[in-house]
Amino acid sequence: MERNRDAVPEYLFGQGTNFQAYKYFGAHRSGKDEVVFRVWAPHADAVCLAGDFNGWNTQSHPLQRWDETGVWTGVLHDPFFRDGSKYKFAVTKNGNTVMKADPFAFWSENQSQTASLFLEESGHYEWRDEAHMQDRKKLILPLSEDRAPSVPMNIYEVHLGSWRRTEDGRYLTYDDIARELPAYVREMGYTHVEFLPVAEHPLDASWGYQVCGYYAPTSRFGTPGAFKYLIDELHRNGIGVILDWVPAHFPKDAHGLYMFDGTPTYEYEDSRKQSHPSWGTNCFDLGKTQVQSFLISNALYWLDEFHVDGLRVDAVASMLYLDFDRQPGQWAPNDEGGNINKEAVWFLQKMNRAVREFHPDCMTIAEESTSYPDVTKKHGLGFSMKWCMGWMNDTLSYLPVDPLFRQYHHGKLTFSMVYVFGESYCLPISHDEVVHLKKSLLNKSFGDYDARFAGTRTFLSYMMTHPGKKLLFMGCDFGQFAEWNEAKSLDWHLLDYPMHRMLHDFVRDLNMLYRSHKSLWEFEQSWDGFRWDLANDAQQNVLAYERMSSDGEKLLVCLNFSGQGYGEYYVPVSEEGTYVPLLNSDESRYGGRGWLIPEARSFPADGGYKLRTTLPALSAVIYALKK
User: Fold this and answer.
1) What is the mean pLDDT of the chain?
2) Is 324 helix (H, G, I), strand (E, B) or coil?
3) Residue 485: phi, psi to the nearest 5?
4) CA–CA distance, 500 with 489 (Å, rounded to integer)
5) Residue 12 backbone phi and psi in degrees, to 5
6) DSSP bridge partners of 250
7) What is residue 140's predicted lDDT score, i.e. its pLDDT?
8) Mean pLDDT score, 400-404
């Protein structure tokens, strides 16, 4: 019988418009003792189903090809095929058969075991996060607006395998983490967690960035239902959840997407675009409509089925540039002679439009390390936010400088204000900055033991009061000394030492101050919320600026990055009034020297106003204006 092509999921998949492909492809129960399997393998000569139900026989259960779409389908009649049953597709091309995991599997084995695991769709999780899902609707913006929502966003970046471990070094389960992480995040004042990639990946050392099972939360820590429970518990504690998502590349593991039907299927055929030489991975062919359906469906899958609040899109620059990680002669220019991958641009625009259409209360965040224009504009790539890599690189290169020479690097603290209102930015201190000989955040700071803590407190105060959303990697908030190691737990025992405990308390209080003061987050993309009071005192390593809100709140931030304290320092301010200290990073309870910062009243001077203040060495002082 003739089928209506416009209603056929295979046809829409081929058109690049099937954005819920996961509801059709993969393994789905079609009757009491029946499961239907569908897989896209357009150039395969044969595809068979193999698993524990047939002793992994690669010929006994052939699938049938459905016309020109390249989709193979078959029905398994087996009353014993149930949750956890193992299967793969035996894909044959030119007489060579390779066992492939299901690209749409909802559950998978992990590491050295690579079978797909069947999961009943009828076992949907019963969510209890109605209040959070209702509350996040405040993130919805008119489609005409190019800005991040005016809400505080302070993200705690977490690697699930190393946040905590058991005493004998084993992973915590999703259930274990659900009992500990939400309470910690809430207590510390973070608004969101961002998980490094949770989709199934074979290699721990990839940190999750080399994905083989795009639709399967890793079973290292438990079942997909248990992962939903973790998200649910975070939501019930008022905490949003962002997932790291990897649409740029995939590994060359034999059971994964690599050469899926014996030919380049998910990857580019052109060898000049096919792989990332330095990463040892293959690039998705973003111009192929079936790949667009696969990836956009995957993005929406995490939002649909796991109530995720946003996706941080990894390695966007590697997608945008044809010459990324390639030497001259290893890449070909586009039809205009340039180095932009137009297919990647169109894909990212299409993906972001789909998220806005189906989940307008969710966000997409680009890790984009170049000056590519309009990343967060609707007429551009359409992301909600972009990581501010320039700010990160400048400030982290400033921290190790001896204060005697910081005057020559002062612009690294001020240059971001030249461009920060051009996009919707998030300021990241991420996992990438505290690993592989880059030193931990604490150890980046110049000086002796006490100076490192003081410098870290000052830097974090600068970060939290600078325009832009925030992201801080786990361990930075209590002064992890060692670089991050994905193979072991954070050094939580450091909290038994006073300086680490006091830094931890300081970060908590700083986070709470950020969340409770509208002036620090309402205006992220205009000068309406920021005023330089002192930008050019490079010789004394001092910065001062004001943050303002629409309801008249005004905070004054004074930062002293020098090793010398100033008992009497005059700061130009915008108006007359009494300035009440809200936070002093030099307080003894935070591990400082205990310099006291009293209230002070500004006075007319030089045609404006000045404030006489005290600035301890390596300190941040935050005042509220009381008129």
Assistant:
1) 95
2) coil
3) -130, 115
4) 17
5) -65, -35
6) 282
7) 79
8) 97
* Residue 27 lies inside a defined structural domain of this protein: yes
Please report which residue ranges of 467-520 form alpha helices under DSSP H: 498-516
**Strands 566-573, 578-584: pairing kind:** unpaired
367 is catalytic: yes
Domain count for the chain, please give it. 2
- Domain-embedded: residue 112: yes
CB 570 within 8 A of CB 620: no
567 within some domain = yes
> What is the extent of the structural domain holding 588?
528-626
Where among 123, 142, 176 does a domain terminate? Answer: 123
pTM, to two decimals: 0.96
Active site residue 126: no
Q: Are 599 and 581 in contact (CB under 8 A)?
A: yes
Give the chain's radius of gyration (CA, Å): 27
Cα(510)–Cα(188) distance, rounded to whole angstroms?
A: 9
Distance in angstroms between the alpha carbons of the first and the last residue of the chain: 79
Residue 81 forms part of a structural domain: yes
Residue 419, pLDDT score: 97
| Residue 335 reports pLDDT greater than 60 | yes
Alpha-carbon span 431 to 265, nearest angstrom: 32
What token pair was written down for 257?
A: 């997407």
The total of other beta-carbon atoms located within 10 Å of residue 126's CB is 7
Q: Where is the domain boundary, 100, 123, 146? A: 123
CATH of the domain at 55: 2.60.40.10
Question: Which entry of 314, 343, 477, 509 is annotated as an active-site residue?
Answer: 314
Residue (of 108, 82, 193, 63) closest to 477 by Cα position: 193
Question: Which CATH number is 578's domain given?
Answer: 2.60.40.1180
* Single-letter residue type at 411: G
- Catalytically annotated residue among 129, 200, 367, 533: 367
